[in-house]
């Protein structure tokens, strides 16, 4: 989802780029990774094991992709003098705060997925202290992959009401907006403006999953009251979820001279106007009318 958006942004900016999917590159293969980074200036790593619940019973496999492979990539970039932008997650944090987490907040994952991603973060900051950029994101949605916003619109055509948790707080982030920010960060890095380290690539503001669902319906011409609040206890999952995933964005200005991402509502409004989401919204309205 994010990788396709990054390539689209680069193409529209006229920047030469190569996108390597799973079939093109095994990121756990050190020789293949070293060959892939030769001759480039910036690597953006969007590859990840993203099955949060699946990681609970396959932590070793998740860590191989989210941790060990990232160390391989960081080593290759260090040897080739290539800058690395690595996409990480809010799940490396404990999720028990009441104020936005700063970039230097103490980590403490509550599940296997978060632990696997933390291994990757540590590899980048250790091996590329100046040329490594860890960008934590959260609550990502976009046109090119399964995500919460798309699911809510699909279910709108099938159900009269939906129960959505209202006790998890975060920052819904449009993958295309994040992709633009990653490209801006890469360009700033090449110019020597951006310092290596940890950045928080999430939307400004905050809401809950119920708040996101209701706003999605409202902007799509659907009745937001069809979304009913419930608690996390009503939806028991194999992996624990952090209750508070709101991140601070100070590093963008202080370390890179860039503005943070805009408010989540602004991003959602733009995202829902894109063809893929607009089609889902129309289908939802038509299905409801039928």
UniProtKB/TrEMBL annotation:
The EC number(s) given in the record are: 1.1.1.133
Quote the Gene3D superfamilies the UniProt record gives: NAD(P)-binding Rossmann-like Domain, UDP-galactose 4-epimerase, domain 1
* Residue span, RmlD-like substrate binding domain: 1-273
Cite the GO molecular-function annotations of the record: dTDP-4-dehydrorhamnose reductase activity
The entry's keywords: NADP, Oxidoreductase
Its family? Belongs to the dTDP-4-dehydrorhamnose reductase family.
**Source species taxonomy:** Bacteria, Bacillati, Actinomycetota, Actinomycetes, Kitasatosporales
What does this protein do, in the record's words? Catalyzes the reduction of dTDP-6-deoxy-L-lyxo-4-hexulose to yield dTDP-L-rhamnose.
Protein's name in the database: dTDP-4-dehydrorhamnose reductase
